[in-house]
Amino acid sequence: MILEKNKPIGVFDSGVGGLTVVKSLCEKLPYENIVYFGDTARVPYGNKSRNTIKRFSEEIVAFLLKKKVKMIVIACNTASSLAVDHLKKKFKLPILGVIEAGVEEALINTGNKKIGVIGTNSTVKSGAYERLLLRKESKACLVSRSCPLFVPLVENGMIRDRITQLIVERYLREFNKNGVDTLILGCTHYPVLKKVIQKVLPNVTLIDSASAVAKKTEFILKEKKLASNGDRGFRVINCFVSDAPGDFKRNARIFFAEDINVSKAMLEQ
Ligand code: DGL
């Protein structure tokens, strides 16, 4: 029987972008094994309704439970915004959404409590960041903005292109004038654009929710006495996707330098 602490962490996303979270988890927690699920057959989540995202997320958690994970990290900001409360009620294991970690990190960093968040249309429309922020700090103020073109730019590898710089400027220049001192990168793909965003917003502190969630995962594993001590040898990362693995494998290199095992898996619906 596998000891609880030696079981893998389950991570899921709508597609490949959640590998930014896997990368941060690997840096922070080198002894942890990871099972990742990318819902490539149904991506993008960023413009889908709450009920649809809740249903998809539930199916994925059920799949990860069969892989005997000890905890779930929702790498997808859209799924975290729309489904985390539902999943926490439905399943017993620890479940961490990326927005919780991002909000906490932003509150540690802000000087004036005026915080910005950028994300997909569904994340921004859900109001989840605002609700959580105000629950944790009633004097805080949130300015949000959806940036729907960022995901395709990243997935097409256009990280350093001039067009990307122009679109980043178009979406974000208001943050140089609206008093926000800290901006949460509230989407799996945005940490890849961190350098371009920082160039456009030189005086704003950027919160990379991928590294914030890795920090919080470490805390939860220690608190629940679930942290692995590495006595099982090398770390293993197994990725499962709901569509053919080819594109995922190719795009994975934008987010993650290591070679990873990728297989197709069917979800029970
Ligand atoms: N993973 C999604 C998120 O973080 C972005 C991609 C999508 O729209 O599915 O919100």
Briefly summarize what is shown.
By secondary structure, the protein is an alpha/beta fold. It has eleven helices and ten strands.
Question: What descriptive keywords fit this protein?
Answer:
single chain, 269 residues, alpha/beta, Rossmann fold, 6-stranded parallel beta sheet, 4-stranded parallel beta sheet, 43% helix, binds D-glutamic acid
Structural description of this entry:
- The structure is a single chain.
- The protein is 43% helix and 17% strand.
- The model has no long low-confidence stretch (mean pLDDT 94).
- Helix 4 packs across helix 6 (128-136) and helix 4 (98-109) crosses helix 10.
- It has a 6-stranded parallel beta sheet, sandwiched between helices.
- It has helices at residues 19-28, 50-66, 77-90, 98-109, 121-126, 128-136, 150-155, 162-172, 194-200, 209-223, 246-255; strands at residues 9-13, 34-38, 71-74, 95-97, 114-119, 141-146, 182-185, 205-208, 237-241, 261-264.
- Helix 11 (246-255) links the parallel strand 9 and strand 10 (261-264).
- It is globular.
- It has 269 residues and is an alpha/beta fold.
- The protein contains 11 helices and 10 strands.
- The structure holds D-glutamic acid.
